[in-house]
Design brief:
Strand order of the largest sheet: 1-4-3-2-5-6
Radius of gyration: 22 Å
Largest sheet: 6 strands, parallel
Number of helices: 10
Number of domains: 2
Structural class: alpha/beta
Shape: elongated
CATH class of the largest domain: Alpha Beta
CATH architecture of the largest domain: 3-Layer(aba) Sandwich
Strand content: 25-35%
Length: 324
């Protein structure tokens, strides 16, 4: 995938260009419908399918006190999923005060003037420009002047309600992982680099990889059956994850720790993608390390039982019974 940071760079693509536009936080089924429309257009024309998105999330600039937690760990995680959808071009525009003040007409003109641009796709309610004054109807009218097709995509619904990033966050906070998986079309995952921890897990007989995370939206604190991919490898490894502050050992920092079953090797500095499956139990403060150690062994036994009972595992195909 080729990544650009300015609209002007799109002139270097050299083929007819089909762009899906949006923030795409989470890449849920509604987002995927928008992107697939651009991919289909590119297939028909023999052109390049692309995505135009923004970093940081516009709300972080326009109303930082109301900024939501992100559903993606990083732009790199988003890029991996976009590539799997067939996207070849990724334009990441920096959203700042200057862009926030740009009029809808100015933004539309700069984009529609790109040589070889043939198609723009976005959700039917997508808005852009200063004060969110630009609409898809406005863009369709301007697109006719440039011979660019502008296609608004209707919202995708699940259980009678529109799928949205807000709805995903609400389901994640509630721990409804089956609902999240249905709206994403895949299990929920986070990605992060492994950093050195306090070695508490090793002392308790279950060494853990400490994942460096950001402002992701996590499910409730507790112990989970998870699948793990190391450095983007195709193999999925069975694991158990602990999410929380570790109150029994006096923890105060919110951490994501992962113990890979039957794994030996050095993981420091490597990148893990963790696919959340069934919650085993909520976070609890135990009377001491001996009680905690005993519970950890019970947790490991339960996770092994779940994986043994599920031939498919709980990887990206989403066929593991993750509970809700």
């Amino acid at each position: 995938m080729t990544r650009f940071s300015t609209i002007a760079e799109l002139a270097d693509v050299g083929r007819s260009l089909h762009l899906a536009m949006g923030v795409f936080d989470g890449l849920h089924l509604g987002h995927q419908a928008v992107i697939k429309a651009a991919v289909r257009g590119a297939e028909i024309s023999g052109g390049a399918p692309g995505v135009l998105t923004f970093e940081p999330h516009p709300i972080q600039v326009l109303s930082p006190e109301n900024a939501p937690r992100r559903i993606f760990s990083s732009l790199e995680q988003k890029e991996i999923l976009l590539s799997a959808l067939g996207v070849e071009i990724l334009l990441v525009l920096r959203f700042d005060e200057v862009m926030a003040g740009q009029t809808a007409d100015t933004f539309a003109k700069s984009l529609l003037s790109v040589p070889d641009l043939r198609q723009l796709v976005a959700g039917e309610d997508w808005k852009f420009g200063q004060g969110r004054q630009g609409t898809m109807a406005f863009l369709q009218g301007r697109g006719m002047d440039y011979n660019v097709s502008v296609e608004p995509i209707p919202a995708v619904t699940w259980q009678g309600e529109r799928i949205s990033s807000t709805r995903l966050r609400r389901a994640l906070r509630a721990g409804n992982l089956n609902s999240v998986r249905e709206m994403l079309g895949r299990p929920y995952s986070v990605m992060g680099t492994i950093v050195r921890g306090e070695q508490v897990g090793r002392e308790l007989g279950a060494p853990t990889a400490n994942i460096q995370t950001g402002d992701e939206q996590f499910p409730p604190d507790g112990v989970y059956a998870v699948s793990v991919r190391i450095d983007g490898e195709s193999r999925e490894r069975e694991a158990v994850a602990n999410l929380g502050i570790r109150p029994t050992v006096g923890g105060t920092q919110h951490l994501l720790e992962v113990h890979l079953l039957d794994f030996e090797g050095n993981l420091y500095g490597r990148t893990l993608e963790i696919f959340f499956g069934k919650m085993i139990r909520g976070e609890k403060q135990f009377q001491g390390l001996a009680e905690l150690q005993n519970q950890i062994q019970l947790d490991l036994e339960e996770v092994r039982r779940l994986f043994k009972a599920s031939e498919a595992g709980l990887g990206a195909d989403g066929r593991f019974d993750s509970g809700s």
